Amino acid sequence: MDHPLTRDTTPAVAAGPAERRRRPVGLPALAYGGDYNPEQWPEEVWEEDVRLMREAGVTMVSVGIFSWALLETAPGEYDFGWLDRLLDLLHAGGIRVDLGTPTVVPPAWFYRRHPEALPVTREGVRLEAGSRGAICHSSPAYQDAAAAITEQLARRYGDHPALAMWHVHNEYGVPVSACYCDTSAEHFRRWLRRRYTDLDELNEAWGTAFWGQRYGAWEEIRPPRLTPTAGNPAQQLDWARFTSDALLDNFRRERDVLHRLSPGIPVTTNFMTALSQCESLDYWAWGREVDIVANDHYLVAEAPRNHINLAMSADLTRSVAGGRPWLLLEHSTGAVNWQPRNLPKQPGEMARNSLTHIARGSDGAMFFQWRASRYGAEKFHSAMLPHAGTDSRIWREVVALGASVGALGSVRDSRVVSDAAVLWDWQSWWAQKLEWRPSVELDARAQADAWYAAAWDRHLTVDFAHPEADLSGYPLVLVPALYLMTGAASRNLRRYVETGGTLAVGHFSGIVDEHDTVHPGPYPGALRDVLGLTVEEFAPLPAGRGIRLTGPGGDLTAASWSEFVVARGADPQWTYADGPTAGHPAVTRHALGGGSAWYVSTRLDEAGLDAVLGRVCADAGLPERALPRDVEVVERVGELGRYLFAVNHSGTDARIPLPGDGMELLTGLLVGGVLDVPAGGVRVVHL
Ligand code: GAL
């Protein structure tokens, strides 16, 4: 099987302190474990926990994430006794600790003193405490209190022998990211003053000549609170950027305390890169600030083929980590508790999920949570140790998975081999999601999902990349939806194609600049030259209306969107056969320099996208991979060799070709030439 190395996969050489902090301290192999909330249980239970953790092969647990009220019982009064005993117990049991800073839930006493630190919604409603994540991230009182508890923890546990890493906060950005109170408004204005040299520049960037929105003084500027009708899009886009930055500042504040007082210990926070799970953070910026990129992923249980969304989230996380190993900090052993219908996982599904994350670059698999809660909002959430106890399917699968993860220790630090890049930009997504676009069916996330799935179905392993990133190592770059495109990104793509790359771009891309202002001239202003075409007019389709395209190998079907494309150098490949744009090019290819740039001006169905992608891949010189449907094959390469992961999501046994001989790590058997992967099973060959 051909998996060309498209990127430098040499493991990073451990160098300075920053490089040393790239992996959990003292963890000899992959991480396996989960969130551990012992404060919900009497101490007698802790001994049993540690015994069972050892039985399950647990190597690390995350503790203290929600414990602020128990650690700082009154302002400045601390009770660390229970955490001292817990860390010592875990250490004695050989379990490493990912220690949380508990700053996602301030104690009740804090809110009593600082009700102003509760967040205000866009509609002006102040949210109450009594749940979690009720925080105005611009509140100085919150920032001071968070720094203070972080400092106490760092001083007390910064060199505790059980400490493997620090886990700051929990899932920044959910359940609330923005706060629209007056303190946040003031903070927003300070942020704007740094972004724009003066008010004239801001007025121009925000296009305030429209609807007479001009500002004459900084104090007049407010957050984009609820307005009678559509608000200023550039203001809303800057607000989204400000929100991500404000939260990141709070992360940095805690991280810097930890780096200062607990040197050498990596600091992370758990991301939620799945585009359906957290929308409000620009993870490209966040990925640069954490020592280890960590992610939480939850399947949408009822979604068909949800393992593709899992793979996508894993690839996005690895890409945010710059290709380095990352860590899956949470997923579930079975049902969650917060979906409309919380379906259990099928037998073997949990192992497939965990091992797919590892295949795609995670150096471990952790869960929410170790022991199922008896009370509280999450009592019906699955756990490693379920309410049913150890005589249960989930427990047996947890123990078996622990052994599998244990057998994969040598995979650690190796890098995933990828075939292509998909461009993704949170800022463009935020811009496209604003109101009054040409069709409510324009959906960047759905486009990204569809294009990713098409690549997945062709057995391509993809990285994600920022539009301004160096793309020179990739034979193929896919751009499902990049409505917002900067001049730098536009030049980057042109250079990429001219120097031999193959680019494929989806509709409604390259339309506006960073202020949501339309690029001058015909659409798509940022991509006209590279694509060799103009779009004279958009022609969104009525709901449910399909259209046909004619071209090589038969007709294709599309829906929701079409365009009056005028080729200006590009060669039409498929043409609209009906609909408002009949006779116009629908899919084009532009030969430019040493490369080619494809444009897909409509929303193709699955078969259509596959047909076009097949041609694009051939253009890029990527081989067809004759692998069975729903069998996922990914490679990691490191100092100790190549690891081929094969995950069979189908109900039939599969046989796949192997590029050599090797040891199958989960069964301990030698394999050569071909690899049998049972229905629903996983195999990992060390080649
Ligand atoms: C995560 C969160 C955990 C737990 C879990 C339940 O988003 O970090 O604390 O709530 O969801 O699925």
Describe the sheet with the most strands: 10 strands, mixed
Helix run count: 18
The strands making up the biggest β-sheet line up spatially as 14-13-15-16-23-22-21-18-19-24
Overall average pLDDT: 96
Contiguous runs where pLDDT drops below 50 for at least 5 residues? 1-14
Beta strand %: 15-25%
The CATH homologous superfamily of the domain at 1-63 and 267-410 is called Glycosidases
CATH topology of the domain at 1-63 and 267-410, by name, is TIM Barrel
* Termini separation: 12 Å
The best one-word shape is globular
Classified by CATH, the class of the domain at 1-63 and 267-410 is Alpha Beta
Give the name of the CATH architecture of the domain at 1-63 and 267-410.
Alpha-Beta Barrel
What is the alpha-carbon Rg in Å? 26 Å
Provide the structure class.
alpha/beta
Quaternary organization: single chain
Ligands bound to this protein structure: beta-D-galactopyranose
Tell me what the structure shows.
This protein is of the alpha/beta class and about 675 residues long. Among the domains are: about 1-65 and about 265-410, Alpha-Beta Barrel (TIM Barrel), CATH 3.20.20; about 420-620, Class I glutamine amidotransferase (GATase) domain (Rossmann fold, 3-Layer(aba) Sandwich); about 630-685, Golgi alpha-mannosidase II (Immunoglobulin-like, Sandwich). About 30% of the residues lie in helices and about 20% in strands. The chain is built from 18 helices and 29 strands. It has a 10-stranded mixed sheet with strand order 14-13-15-16-23-22-21-18-19-24, with helices on both faces. A 9-stranded parallel sheet has the order 7-6-5-2-1-11-10-9-8. The longest helix is centred in the middle third of the chain and has 29 residues, at about 235-260. It is globular. Mean pLDDT is about 95; it is low at about 1-15. It binds beta-D-galactopyranose. Beta-D-galactopyranose binds near residues 296, 336 and 381. Beta-D-galactopyranose binds next to loops.
